[in-house]
């Protein structure tokens, strides 16, 4: 999303040797894929077990685990600071993870630890055969929706329900952390990768002075890319058609967000 002409447009656009463990994993996968209504006991037991094993490596805070069969998001974390609680969604490949992985999960969930992230990335890559519809060696995207100040998942869910009738099917995450703060000439506040259906929001926005309505506008903008195709006009790709811009203006605090951007651009560029 362009704040000034200097701002770059963001659109971009295993099997186990243990037969018993293997059998249990297959039962869990089957339960996840057929679950309707009440939570099957196989899933509840696996989630409780994983919660206990992750908590064993945490000095404080409570963790709630939901196992999924998601093809795209392997790890999603939402922090609830006031309650000292973490809501975690994990792909079922983690159900029988060994202590090295559960310790890495605890450190990643509570501290967003870089080394833990690397360990988990390697684990996901080596177990990618468990992901339905994914090539065995294709690496998965590690998703982190809970920032230090703002939670992207709650923003995305609210926008999806209010403006899109819950029809947007995308992944959302904060971008990678940068080094020491410095003044930049441009910033990509958000981007949407068409093939991966991935929305990435710049970490510069995860600061206390950035209002929630402004981040919501950036997220809303990127969600619109799933509604509007990228056209080719006069030999050039058109990311923001007239129809796209008209829909963007439907965001309730659109004018307020534009004004806030103009008056705070320098602070956003210093990150």
Give an account of the 3D structure.
The protein contains eight helices and eight strands. The chain is of the alpha/beta class and 271 residues long. Strands 1-3-2 form a three-stranded mixed sheet. Strands 4-6-5 form a three-stranded mixed sheet, covered by helices on one side. A two-stranded antiparallel sheet has the order 7-8. Helix 2 crosses helix 3. It is globular, with a radius of gyration of 20 Å. Mean pLDDT is 78; it is low at 2-24 and 135-139.
Descriptive labels:
single chain, 271 residues, alpha/beta, Zincin-like, three-stranded mixed sheet, 8 helices, globular
Any idea of the CATH topology of the largest domain? Zincin-like
* Biggest sheet strand line-up: 1-3-2
- Low confidence ranges: 2-24, 135-139
Query: How would a crystallographer describe the biggest sheet?
Result: 3 strands, mixed
Residue fraction in strands: 5-15%
What's the name of the CATH homologous superfamily of the largest domain?
Metalloproteases ("zincins"), catalytic domain
The class by helix and strand makeup works out as alpha/beta
Measured on Cα atoms, how large is the radius of gyration?
20 Å
How many independent structural domains? 2
Continuous helix count: 8
Q: Using the alpha-carbon principal axes, give the shape.
A: globular
**Strand elements, count:** 8
The CATH C-level class name of the largest domain? Alpha Beta
> How far do the termini sit from each other?
17 Å
Order of SSEs, N→C? Answer: HHEEEHHHEEEHEEHH
Overall helicity: 25-40%
Indicate the mean pLDDT: 78
Please state the second-level CATH architecture of the largest domain: 2-Layer Sandwich
